[in-house]
Design brief:
Blueprint: E1 3-6, E2 9-12, E3 29-30, E4 54-55, E5 61-66, E6 72-74, E7 83-91, E8 101-106, E9 112-115, E10 118-120, E11 125-133, E12 138-147, E13 152-162, E14 168-173, E15 191-200, E16 212-217, E17 223-226, E18 229-232, E19 238-247, E20 251-260, E21 266-275, E22 282-287, E23 292-294, E24 299-307, E25 317-322, E26 331-333, E27 337-341, E28 349-358, E29 364-373, E30 378-386, E31 408-415, H1 417-420, E32 427-433, E33 438-439, E34 444-446, E35 453-458, E36 465-474, E37 480-489, E38 497-498, E39 506-514, E40 517-523, E41 530-537, E42 544-549, H2 551-558, E43 563-569, E44 572-577, E45 580-588, E46 593-596, E47 608-610, E48 626-632, E49 636-641, E50 644-648, E51 658-661, E52 667-673, E53 678-683, E54 688-691, E55 701-702, E56 717-723, E57 726-731, E58 736-740, E59 745-749, E60 761-771, E61 778-787, E62 794-800, E63 805-810, H3 811-814, E64 821-826, E65 832-836, E66 839-843
């Protein structure tokens, strides 16, 4: 029961609150048109109705808002009779008329009085108030009514005028924050809670402590009653009653606190408490790892994480056992970590560590790991050589000079603490090729005490490609260790290999799309723009393994347009061309066949040419030359053009619909960074941009603003590329710019700090990812395509991220057909394909 004091007069709400305000539901709506759908012209009408609808006059909504139904008003003689402001609201679907509002009060002696009251507001909803003096003891019935001429809405309450207020009772613990009658706390079964409530007299009387009673009804409907423990203030008008109760069952308990005053009026408060089942705690051992090995007498830290859904982890008891959980634990306490020393056990002895965690209700959780009292052996790969005696370069881990390797020798160094002091205990070495899953050699037995270095030979012919070697050593106790290294068997090339049949091509771009399959955009000698889908190149060199001429498609769609970039979207391929965007289906992307699924190249009905991009305002781009493409998550295609960037949210449904940004700017290249989720844009106007896609704004960050004084006026940024160490930009000047996204910092490489020759231009960049000899390690190899001023000047650069080091390749020395390398693309086998003004070259430098 709650009490409210208003203007010195006390209203006491009874045991049950008044139900939500009386009155009628909103007016029904009748459809006024012929389609029975509501509204004949799509225009919304008043009162939530659509145009054309007609409202039936509903009953006015009338609610008495104060005082609450069942309230008490104190009239204690010789004090004057109390005056109370009665308050209500009236709402109707027509303007409220004040003269039609009526308050009616029926006194305990059955006499009645009526009044219009005072109206606040005008229109469809008003408030009405009436100041009324209650001069009799007993029950008053208060009614508020409104007559709109057709219907009457009304509300009615009853209040009690008394000369002595009843006692107030409320339950204070556990807490019910949202006052929904259910405690916030959900204790676990068998938990003991101390219930707490307050009992007080609001008119100065003393609380009758003997008339306070707690009643708890369990889910099985058994009830327990107890007077609890009561303490009061000095005047005895306010008391706190507590009762400790064990909630043994799961389910809903009903708690009731009641008190009776001197006039035999009983007031109570109720609260439901939901008791949940206990969830056992859990324990997960973090260290040592399962299968770990330790030397006898070694000190080892064992640790675990413990958790419980019902109580704090620090309140749990954790016990550690070695081997046997029936004996005394090796350590215990309310902590989850223990440092222990293993006893002087014999070598090759297996043990078990067990973690047992117990909660306050004795529920337990366990975890265990096995370990060996034996030091782990160690192994390193010292060298790898092929059957011709060529050693692997230490920093690379690869072969580069064999068309096929018939055997590989792997030299390893091994060691083990136990076996080193026991010459008779041998270790077994196995080398696996994780690329094929096969063993490179039969397991070899070695004695590290005699020789710690061992060489095994993989005597099976090894094909081209990348292979990961896993050298695993197992000691006499069964403990093992392993190490990885990578070898790449590549075609025998120390120079670039010109692809036969392409020497008369002015190759504009080359795009690797799957395996060794690629699209080549070129101009044959004296011809117009052409396009080919090519696969493979043989080692003689005799040319591509196969080639499909797609020039008819370009002629049919856009009169010999030049292809400048490509992108894959689902089962389609998009070509950025000088005449717009061409989108065609591919045969089987999932199966790696990315040739075009076009029946007739001269009439490619399966393809679409989008010559103009349309922004949301419906304006066509003035210049539709497309220069670069990128695909964002969700299939959003980004096209860089001679007139800005277009973000197409549905390129396969309606190409060109989307957002246009950087108008009047020629976009040279676009790259998407999956780590930051940002798009990086290179332009020909000395600016680089970052755009964090929102698809509703063109707000971009100009990266070079006050950060890159190395960019000259009207500098052309030809290319942008995302690498593991940052974002690379290549410019005309020439320079290579590395942008650190996290720190917003730049590193600059120019001819003075790299092998680039003055007068060169950086035209394209490519990244090749390498793996090192330790599991999980890797590095980027950056490949740079240059427009070199002469054949003796470098036209291709290779930068190793780890060393770091530069390697330069030129046309006169390294077999590159022309000093201008326009694009580098890397296929799945690591072969670098070079697009030059005098044909295609393949380069297998590892």
């Amino acid at each position: 029961m709650a009490l409210t004091i208003v203007g010195g007069i006390i209203f006491a709400t009874g045991c049950g609150d008044k139900k939500p305000g009386a009155g009628s539901a909103p007016s029904p709506v009748v459809d006024g048109d012929s389609d029975n759908a509501g509204g004949d012209n799509g225009t919304a009408g008043d009162n939530g109705m659509e145009g054309g609808d007609t409202a039936i006059n509903g009953t006015p909504q009338v609610v008495i808002t104060d005082p609450a139904d069942g309230s008490f008003v104190l009239f204690a003689s010789p004090n004057p009779a109390p005056t109370v402001d009665l308050q209500g609201t009236i709402a109707d679907n027509a303007t409220i008329l004040a003269q039609n509002i009526a308050w009616t009060i029926t006194a305990p002696d059955a006499s009645t009085s009526s009044s219009q009251g005072n109206v606040n507001g005008v229109g469809l909803s008003v408030a009405s108030t009436l100041a009324y003096t209650f001069d009799q003891l007993g029950a008053y019935v208060i009614a508020l009514a409104y007559d709109d001429g057709e219907r009457i809405g009304n509300d009615e309450i009853t209040i009690q005028v008394v000369d002595n207020l009843p006692v107030e009772v409320d339950i204070r613990a556990p807490v019910d924050t949202d006052q929904d009658g259910v405690a916030d706390l959900q204790p676990v079964e068998s938990a003991q809670l101390t219930l707490s409530g307050r009992v007080r007299e609001m008119d100065g009387d003393q609380v009758d402590t003997a008339a306070i009673l707690w009643t708890v009804t369990a889910p099985d409907v058994t009830s327990t009653q107890d007077a609890g423990t009561t303490t009061c203030n000095g005047a005895g008008t306010t008391c706190t009653s507590t009762y400790a109760f064990n909630f043994a069952q799961t389910g809903i308990y009903s708690v009731r606190l009641e008190a009776t005053d001197t006039q035999s009026r009983t007031v109570f408060a109720e609260l439901d408490i939901v008791v949940v089942a206990n969830t056992p705690p859990t324990c997960q051992i973090l260290t040592p790892a399962n299968g770990a090995a330790f030397a006898s007498g070694e000190t080892v830290t064992v640790s675990a994480t413990v958790s419980d859904a019902n109580e704090p982890a620090l309140d749990l008891t954790v016990e550690w056992y070695f081997d046997d959980v029936t004996g005394a634990p090796a350590g215990t306490g309310r902590v989850d970590q223990l440092t222990a020393t293993f006893p002087g056990a014999a070598a090759c002895e297996a043990h078990t560590i067990v973690c047992v965690v117990t909660d306050s209700l004795s529920a337990t959780g366990t975890d265990s790991v096995g370990f060996m009292v034996s030091s782990l052996p160690t192994i390193t790969i010292d060298g790898i050589a092929d059957d011709q005696g060529n050693n692997v370069r230490a920093a690379e881990g690869e072969f580069a000079d064999s068309t096929q390797v018939t055997s590989i020798s792997i030299t390893t160094t091994t060691d083990d603490a136990e076996d080193r002091v026991a010459p008779g205990a041998d270790m077994t070495l196995t080398v696996l090729d994780s690329h094929t899953g096969s063993a490179l050699a039969a397991p070899a037995t070695i004695n590290p005490f005699v020789a710690t270095q061992f060489t095994t030979v993989w005597d099976t012919a090894i094909g081209l490609g990348r292979h990961t070697l896993v050298a695993k050593i197992t000691d006499s106790c069964g403990a093992s260790a392993m190490v990885e290294d990578e070898v790449v068997v590549a075609p025998q090339m120390q120079t670039a290999q010109a692809v036969a049949g392409t020497d008369t091509w002015d190759v504009r771009d080359i795009f690797a799309v799957s395996g060794d399959a690629m699209y080549v955009a070129y101009r044959p000698d004296g011809g117009d723009n052409a396009l080919a889908y090519a696969t493979g190149v043989s080692s003689d060199p005799a040319g591509f393994g196969s080639m499909e001429d797609l020039t008819q498609l370009l002629d049919a769609l856009s009169q010999g347009t030049r292809v400048r970039d490509i992108a894959l979207i689902d089962d389609y391929i998009a070509f950025a061309t000088s005449d717009g965007l061409i989108i065609c289906p591919v045969e089987d992307r999932a199966g790696g066949n990315l040739s075009l699924a076009v029946q007739d190249l001269a009439n490619p009905v399966e393809c679409t040419l989008v010559p103009d991009y349309i922004n949301p305002q419906g304006n066509n781009f003035a210049d539709s030359e497309t220069r670069a493409l990128a695909v964002l998550p969700g299939g959003v295609l980004v096209a860089g053009t001679d007139n800005g960037v277009v973000f197409m949210t549905d390129p396969l449904g309606l190409p060109g619909q989307g957002l246009q940004c950087l108008e009047d700017t020629t976009i040279e290249d676009i790259a998407y960074d999956p780590i930051s989720g940002a798009l990086f844009i290179a332009t020909n106007g000395d600016h680089a941009y970052r755009w964090d896609p929102t698809f509703d704004t063109c707000a971009m960050t100009q990266l070079d603003d006050n950060n890159t004084p190395m960019l000259g006026s009207d500098e052309v940024i030809h290319t942008v590329l995302v690498g593991s160490d940052g974002i690379w930009f290549g410019t005309e000047s020439p320079s290579l710019l590395l942008y650190d996204v996290s720190n917003n910092a730049w590193t600059v490489y120019r001819p003075a700090s790299s092998p680039m020759a003055p007068g060169s231009a950086v035209l394209h960049l490519a990244i090749e990812v390498k793996t090192l000899g330790t599991p999980g390690a890797g590095r980027d190899i950056l490949w740079v395509a240059l427009d070199a001023p002469a054949n003796v000047a470098p036209s291709v650069l290779r930068r190793d991220e780890v060393l770091p080091s530069w390697t330069a390749f030129s046309a006169d020395r390294d077999g590159i057909p022309d000093a201008q390398v326009r694009r580098i693309t890397i296929d799945a086998n690591g072969v670098k394909w070079l697009a030059t003004a005098q044909g295609v070259a393949a380069y297998a430098w590892p």
